[in-house]
Design goal:
Shape: elongated
Distance between the termini: 57 Å
Helix content: 10-25%
Number of domains: 1
Strand content: over 45%
Number of strands: 8
CATH topology: Immunoglobulin-like
Order of helices and strands: EEEEEEHHEE
Oligomer: single chain
Largest sheet: 5 strands, antiparallel
CATH architecture: Sandwich
CATH superfamily: Immunoglobulins
């Protein structure tokens, strides 16, 4: 019986984009990057500055520690970022923010790369997911 380690985990998608917390200093956004690993052996995934855009304006980036990939299993990587509230009120995003306040929704996009490594084999996943999230005021 041989171990399968040359297949890359399948990227399923990004879901559960939402506002976790909003304070006078930060708005915290979270999301889950979903994968399934068909391999008999795990590996590791690492994010490399996934950019976070709010209403088409780059607001922050997400980088995480290496994440251990389980063998033969579906799993998710949590993506969490804090956007300074004052950047939401900057001149470049004020029009989108006013629109968001009236509609109580914001367009949030995660864009960047997640890298998978196992036994000398590596693969880069390109992430580009946009969702409208509800803002609780």
């Amino acid at each position: 019986m041989s171990c399968s380690v040359n297949e890359k985990p399948q990227f399923i998608g990004v879901e559960n984009i939402k506002v976790l917390e909003s304070t006078s200093k930060y708005v915290t956004f979270t999301a889950d990057a979903l994968f399934i690993n068909p391999n008999d052996i795990g590996g590791e995934l690492q994010t490399d500055e996934i950019k976070v855009f709010v209403n088409d304006n780059e607001m922050a980036s997400v980088s995480t520690e290496s994440f251990e990939v389980p063998a033969k299993k579906e799993f998710s990587i949590p993506l969490k970022t804090k956007v300074p509230t004052d950047s939401l009120f900057s001149n470049k995003s004020i029009g989108g923010l006013i629109s968001s306040l009236f509609s109580k929704k914001a367009k949030v996009q995660y864009k960047g790369d997640i890298k998978y490594k196992v036994l000398g084999f590596s693969y880069t996943y390109n992430i580009d997911k946009t969702e409208d999230v509800k803002i609780k005021l």
